[in-house]
Amino acid sequence: MHMKRLGVVSHLIGGRKLIVKGSESMSFCNIKDLPRKGSAVLDKKVAKIGKVSDIIGPTAHPYVVVKIFSDVPDSKIKSWIREKVYVK
């Protein structure tokens, strides 16, 4: 399975969405480096935690909105803040 670093989780919004600060290699200037909407997002243990729902922010340093899967327990969500996440 090929994984690519998505970035670092910045914060949680609305209870079930993560805001991820995109990795340095990601920018709107290089479209091929952007994740596709609907792409699976994984934690450092390679567990699927959600999917890419949107890409926002400045073109040079975008942020990724990740919709967390409904079967992920609330108790795990806050543990991802300031952690690296990956996209498949």
UniProtKB/TrEMBL annotation:
Signal sequence coordinates: none
Biological process according to GO: pseudouridine synthesis; ribosome biogenesis
Xref: Gene3D superfamilies: Probable tRNA pseudouridine synthase domain
InterPro entries to which the protein is assigned, alphabetical: Gar1/Naf1_Cbf5-bd_sf (IPR038664), H/ACA_rnp_Gar1/Naf1 (IPR007504), Transl_B-barrel_sf (IPR009000)
Pfam families, per database record: Gar1
Organism superkingdom: Archaea
Official protein name in the record: H/ACA RNA-protein complex protein Gar1
Record lineage: Archaea, Methanobacteriati, Methanobacteriota, Stenosarchaea group, Methanomicrobia
